[in-house]
Amino acid sequence: MSNYILIAIIMFYLAVLFFLAFKAEKNAKSRWVNNPYVYSLSLAVYCSAWTYYGSIGIAANSGVDFLPIYIGPVIAAPLWIVLLRKIIRISKQHKISSIADFISLRYGNNRFLGALITVICFLAILPYISLQLKAVSEGFEIISDETSYVSKSIWDDSTFYIAVLLALFATFFGTQATDASEKHRGIVTTVALESILKIGFFLLVGIYVTFFIFDGTQDIFDQFSQIGDVDRLTTIQGLEGGVNWFFMVALSFFAIFLLPRQFQMAVIENNREKHLKTAIWAFPLYLLLFNLFVIFIAFGGKLVFGDTANAEYYTLLLPLSEGHLFLTLLVFLGGFSAVISMVVVSTLALSTMVSNNLIIPYGFLDKFIENHPDKNAYYIKNIRRISIFSIIILAYVFYYHFSIERSLISIGLVSFVIVSQLAPSFFIGLYWNRGSARGSIAGIIIGFAITVYTLILPFTTNIVSGNNNLAEHGLFGISLLKPYALFGIDFLNPYAHAMFWSLTFNILVYLVLSLIYKGNYRERNYAEMFIDSKNYSSLQDSALVWKGEAYVADIKNVLAKFLGEKETTRALRIFFTKYDLPQDTQVADARLINFSEKLLTGSIGSASAKILIASVVKEEEISLLEVLKILEESKETIARNKMLREKSETLTLLTDQLRQANLDLLDKDKQKDEFLDTVAHELKTPITGIRASTELVLEDKEMPDPIREQFLKNVLQDSDRLSRLINNILDFEKLSKGKTTLDLAQNDIQQTIKKAMEVVKHMAAKKQVTLVNKNPHKLSLRYDADRILQVLTNLLSNAIKFSPAETGVVTMDYKLSNQSIELSVTDNGKGIPPEDFDFIFDKFYQSKHQNTKKPEGSGLGLAICKQIVEQHQGTIWIDKSYKKGAKLVFKLPFD
Hints:
There is one protein chain. By secondary structure, this protein is mostly helical. The protein folds into 4 domains: 3-406, Sodium/glucose cotransporter (Up-down Bundle), CATH 1.20.1730; 545-622, no CATH class; 627-736, Signal transduction histidine kinase, dimerisation/phosphotransfer (DHp) domain (Helix Hairpins), CATH 1.10.287; 745-893, Heat Shock Protein 90 (2-Layer Sandwich). It contains 34 helices and 9 strands. The strands form 3 sheets. Strands 4-6-7-9-8 form a 5-stranded mixed β-sheet. A two-stranded antiparallel sheet has the order 1-2. A hairpin with a 2-residue loop joins strand 6 and strand 7 (820-827). The longest helix is centred in the last third of the chain and has 76 residues, at 624-699. The chain is elongated. The termini are far apart. 44% of the residues are buried.
């Protein structure tokens, strides 16, 4: 393909990404930008050109040894819900903008430690960025069939111009805000999109190689087994191989937390903690899919090219060898996407670290013009822009002079080993409050020095002198000092070997010095804030222990230099309102000191923020015991506040319950009054009827016999009605006080059902309601036949009463369940109102939605049913899911 066409395609691709990033920045609050899947995909910035090309190279020559680089992150992912969540919370509380800020703040805002971490990250990431440029350059050569670009000057090298374009992209979207802790939604969105493209194109070429160039996975293995050692390439190779794997897994585990680009995307760009729930499964799934075809592409490339081609670029060479230029172009764009993501995010993170931890605190802080916030913001942005350009151009120079002859994987692993020196200070410092700045600094320096000696120095001396004496004979000819076999350990690969010795001494020095030197009060203060971040988040600004003399006016002047008068006034007003302080407060306390440092941290870094605030306050030295005492008091305050909140919530709940109980009592009292009125009415009606009928019979001696007989029948009916009412009242009294005993015997439930239906059939016939016995089968169990008959009769008569005349249907049914029988009575009436569900079986309760103007009955029928059923160790309830009327169900257990 023509160079000019390829460059035009790259320019167009970058223009599309630039446009999408611009739209994402403008719509930063859109759900298409802020969602857990975009966040999870942005974490795939981990998959750089090393993943896209380098893994194939390892797989072709060393088989499954490419896997540990991905197993580490997969192991780390489930821990994110605890570990990464804690890191995110701390970072948000303190407006952290980089991993250097995070670690240095843990150790008392130590300026030198922040600068040291920045230098370590710079030295680790610069070669890593050069690796990406190398991948672009070599991919460009392959697809354009141009192999002479490297020998020309940089002005003739297309890679140089691509590097400049990447710098422009990172500069535009990475420096729009002065506060580096703010989110960069445009960059996050484009990284997520590029993650989709790079995995999509990689899977596409994997499918093409596996199923079109070859006849599936088995075909590749069968053919490769004839020319290569498949067993060696698909196994770990014993104990030594297992130890190497362990260290490589640990190395990648550390990298997923400590690489500046990963910290930037996982922590700084996280705007919702709940996105972690998606990321813990989506990111490992992404890595799994990315590695699905690696081994097959590697073996397929070996089969096609043998040892005549660079295995790292099989993804480009294989489709190109088959004449599929379009597929090759897609794969190239996928690799280019991996490069863009890594370079842009890494330079963004590094530029923030360089400006906030090196340039501003060491030399530029005094040059900020007083009371000119706009100019200060302009200077800060320019420092970061120059840093971004400088980093990318230096990476290009490193690539041009040093990395051309090195493999992608070797450069990447050197970067991993260097950045792993931050692990002890980072991980141990999160959970051990004795960790000190002195121990951290010494440990990192010792670890880095050992890394240089065991990994970087042999390579450098070999390039400079042309011999390999140091690696073969050791320093001063001492064999125990061989860089690749230090103290006789010669079975580890160079990267595992360097990691083992550097981290061993790093951890030892860190622990020993931290135990010997306790650190100052500020270190211990921040240590407690980090370790107990969950509790201290409730106090936030009060968590800083500070004693001295400070004035609001002086602090306000410092803040105004960077935030402007308007923003400063607004921030202070919010602060005073939050802590219920007068707006004209003159003397500053520890809370305002901490609040002010946080406001400045995002713009100039935690170290510079500390220096600026310290320049206008008079801080007094505090003893460590005093710090611990204050922190303990803070913890007690938190515990006391928590206890008071819990008690307040309990009292509120009890008050609500008491109020509800009072309302229930009033309702019960009202129902009781209605019940007494109803009972009085029900008693009075038959008595009045009996009296009237009796008087008429006595007074009219000549009354015809048929009429006299009718009056006497009326007297008898009213007597029965009065007897039933009295019996109901007496029944409920006995049942509720447990004065009755059940006459339990083995009975046929079908016979009891038929008796109940016989009792109510006249009532049903009078209203023209149809009675249905749905289950006519016999079933024998132990129960009191008279009492269950009473329950069934009551339920059936209620159902008939509330069924519509002429069209009403009442159904009696039963079914067996686990160790019990469930009997149900259903009707097709209006149903029971939802507000009656919880009270329908209470004594005195009568539904207010009956069809009559005044509630019928005594209100004891269903209450008696409940007492009888419960005496049988059963339960009775309303089927709330039944919508075609009412359905009442009761359950009787088997013996």
